[in-house]
């Protein structure tokens, strides 16, 4: 085996499912337009086979942008809230915060959209708002669980060693909580990709647009195209997070352990 | 030197530490002993300001610690706890380097210090430095814990039942290592323990706590010979207290170095405990043992009658 590290890494990547699922997702995103006309045998006679209101790369980009923006906001809010609730000053609020975000989760997304439209108008904004509301809970739940999982003895030792509160958070608590925090973010983002489709009911451009149009126009071809792409998108991102989680967990090191 | 002056700390309505006044001399080991809930851990945590007292004062070399920022104070003191609390995501090396890193020492000085400390606590740097805590045995983890606490040459080492979670043979060897390290470095140590033998083996001074009150201080031999009350006597073994007293006294205390008559056999060190001497007498079926003082080579004899005589 005289492959260099780069070739080694590439061959390792080729063996990961994220690579294959991601490749299929990209291929369909850019190839759907060419592929769709050949799928007529699947659908009733006379159905329009190619979604034309927007190109699929455009839909995917817009979908990713909406979900990404909402996820960033949700991660920022969820993480800050969890950090606050695990500090001495915020400990009293922990139960309230958990309850609030649990309530947010029980609201159906469509209802949130419907309520948001009068104040935020149609389009991307109410969609992002609903996604943020939905995304916060898993992030905060994961972060609370992760920060709560750091053993008390480790915190005691860190305090005793003379870490500042911020130093303890940054260098001890967050690194140790990272795998569980990441699992929460993974759930949040994956759910968000699925939920974003309903944003198209209030006029946001997402992979839900062909689905909604297909449903209202009785066109199963559009529904299928949107569904397949959004599912592949979610699975690709989910597997991608899986790879990051793998990288975060220290491999059994033996004698030749790597330093971090 | 560390001085407690009428120190009180309550939790809810109960006084966990109640008007404790105590002085620990520089370079000595003071063992805080008592049953669970006697306030000994609370008293220890007041020293590095993990807790602050409700009343009274604690002075470090004459300076009230209430006026020293907790973070700065803690970096000047080592802290070892029973559950060790090594940082699981850091190697042994990085764990030991914790306080030097916080203090911003240059890398070369840290590396040298880490190797020196691992040696000091009996871990081979080339074998253990790059390992992670979960790859070490409980005893090795506690050795790393001690090394981490000593890393920045603390004025004071605080230990909260440091060897409570390891098996007895490992505990003995850790205690021996700690005693040897203390002799070499001269670090002042305050150690909390409910293990009577540990207190006797390590403690130059015992401070006995009961319901937050300091009921007796003194050398192990003095406390065991004259326990302040029934509870103290019971804590140190009740009917078996005499056996613990044998641990607290040396052969040299009871041997006769003027008797010219010589006894055959392997001589016992004058600084071995009387317990060891008694064990040898029983094993060898004899009532006399030859004694040698390793410091000056003088020879003497220990009689069973002297050993048990008070």
Topology diagram in text:
The complex is a heterodimer of chains A (about 260) and B (about 300).
Chain A: H1 5-14, H2 17-35, H3 56-85, H4 94-106, H5 109-120, H6 124-148, H7 152-161, H8 165-195, H9 208-216, H10 220-248
Helix pairs in contact in A: 2-10, 3-6, 3-8, 4-6, 5-6, 6-8, 7-8, 8-10, 9-10
Chain B: E1 2-11, E2 14-24, E3 29-33, H1 40-47, E4 55-60, E5 63-64, H2 70-75, E6 77-81, H3 92-96, H4 98-103, H5 107-120, H6 125-128, H7 138-150, E7 156-160, H8 168-185, E8 188-193, H9 196-202, E9 205-210, E10 213-218, H10 220-225, H11 230-235, H12 241-248, H13 251-254, E11 268-269, H14 274-284, E12 288-292, E13 299-303, H15 304-308
Parallel strand pairs in B: 3-8, 3-9, 6-7, 7-8, 11-12
Antiparallel strand pairs in B: 1-2, 1-4, 4-5, 9-10, 12-13
Could you walk me through the main structural features you see in this protein, from its secondary elements to its overall organization?
- The complex is a heterodimer of chains A (260) and B (310).
- With 260 residues, chain A is mostly helical.
- Chain A is built from ten helices and no strands.
- Chain A has helices at 5-14, 17-35, 56-85, 94-106, 109-120, 124-148, 152-161, 165-195, 208-216, 220-248.
- With 310 residues, chain B is of the alpha/beta class.
- Chain B has two domains: 2-238, Rossmann fold (3-Layer(aba) Sandwich); 249-308, CBS-domain.
- Chain B contains 15 helices and 13 strands.
- Chain B has helices at 40-47, 70-75, 92-96, 98-103, 107-120, 125-128, 138-150, 168-185, 196-202, 220-225, 230-235, 241-248, 251-254, 274-284, 304-308, and strands at residues 2-11, 14-24, 29-33, 55-60, 63-64, 77-81, 156-160, 188-193, 205-210, 213-218, 268-269, 288-292, 299-303.
- In chain B, strands 6-7-8-3-9-10 form a six-stranded mixed β-sheet, with helices on both faces. Chain B has a four-stranded antiparallel β-sheet with strand order 2-1-4-5, covered by helices on one side.
- In chain B, β7, α8 and β8 form a beta-alpha-beta unit.
- Chain B: Keywords: ATP-binding, Nucleotide-binding, Transport.
- Chain B: One of its GO terms (biological process) is quaternary ammonium group transport.
